[in-house]
Amino acid sequence: MKLHNYFRSSASFRVRIALELKGLSYEYVPVHLARGDHRKAPYSALSVDGLVPLLEVDGEKLSQSMAIIEYLDEKHPVPALLPLDAVARAKVRALAQSIACEIHPLNNLRVLKYLVNELKLDEEAKKTWYRHWCRQGLEAFERQLTQWPATNYCHGNTPTLADCCLVPQIFNAQRFEVNLDGLPRTMAAFDACMALPAFQKAQPSACPDHVA
Predict the structure, then answer these.
(1) Contact call for residues 155 and 92 (beta carbons, < 8 A)
(2) d(CA 206, CA 152)
(3) Alpha-carbon dihedral of residues 128, 96, 102, 52, nearest 10 degrees?
(4) Cα dist. 79→63, 100, 141 in Å?
(5) Listed residue (107, 121, 192) closest to 158, CA to CA
(6) Quick check: 88 and 73 in contact, CB under 8 A?
(7) Are the C-beta atoms of 208 and 27 separated by less than 8 Å?
(8) Is residue 140 within 8 Å of 185, Cβ to Cβ?
(9) What is the C-alpha radius of gyration for the chain, rounded to an integer number of angstroms?
(10) Please, which of 38, 96, 144, 200 could form a disulfide with 161 given CB 3.0 to 4.6 Å?
């Protein structure tokens, strides 16, 4: 398997976590988003949407982090990243999508660049935008967690798809100095995840293309 990704991309980070949790080996292929390498050859010839991550596996090219993770979960079901129970599975997907579909699209790199380059926002205004939408989304995430009894992770006592999404979002929130106070269940799940080797190996600072 080849994973085309960028160390700071939260969507890429999600897939790296899933691969590490499942103990799957892969070739790390860096694509530097900040330099625009995702829009240039040779990557532009591989990726029809010009985004990361992209997983090359068994002659196929798979895009979109959530789809990639569910593919990995179906092909390599142990350890499972989605519960067997249908209701629990729906709740875990809802948690994951509240980050991947609600928080992340408002705050990804191309949106932040548009705010600066086209709308002429200064750096502080850009950060204010990020902090507002990230905090609002994490508060909603916290409310979702309180719907069921506390566990070590987002759901149950092993990491799930929700944790694969949560950890990269918290990394980005910390980078943008988002206020994370008053999110006890969210931060407890994050801390539990970061105690595991799989999450440590997948984090940006462990990536070969990492820069300070």
Answers:
(1) yes
(2) 24
(3) 80
(4) 22, 22, 24
(5) 192
(6) no
(7) no
(8) no
(9) 17
(10) 96
Question: 196 with 18: CB under 8 angstroms?
Answer: no
CATH topology of domain 86-198: Glutathione S-transferase Yfyf (Class Pi); Chain A, domain 2 (1.20.1050)
Distances (CA, A) of 117 to 14, 32, 106, 172, 174: 28, 19, 16, 21, 24
Task: With beta carbons less than 8 A apart as the criterion, state whether 22 and 79 touch.
Answer: yes
Assess contact for 157 and 148: CB atoms under 8 A.
no
How far is CA 174 from each of CA 12, 103, 127, 180, 187, rounded to the nearest angstrom?
17, 14, 12, 8, 12
In angstroms, rounded to a whole number, what is the distance separating the alpha carbons of residues 6 and 95? Answer: 24
Pick the CATH number of 2-79 from 3.40.640.10, 3.10.310.10, 3.40.30.10, 1.20.1290.10: 3.40.30.10
Q: Are 13 and 21 in contact (CB under 8 A)?
A: no
Tens digit of pLDDT per residue, the chain (212 long)?
A: 999 999 999 999 999 999 999 999 999 999 999 899 999 999 999 999 999 999 999 999 999 999 999 999 999 999 999 999 999 999 999 999 999 999 999 999 999 999 999 999 999 999 999 999 999 999 999 999 999 899 999 999 999 999 999 999 999 999 999 999 999 999 999 999 999 999 999 999 999 999 86
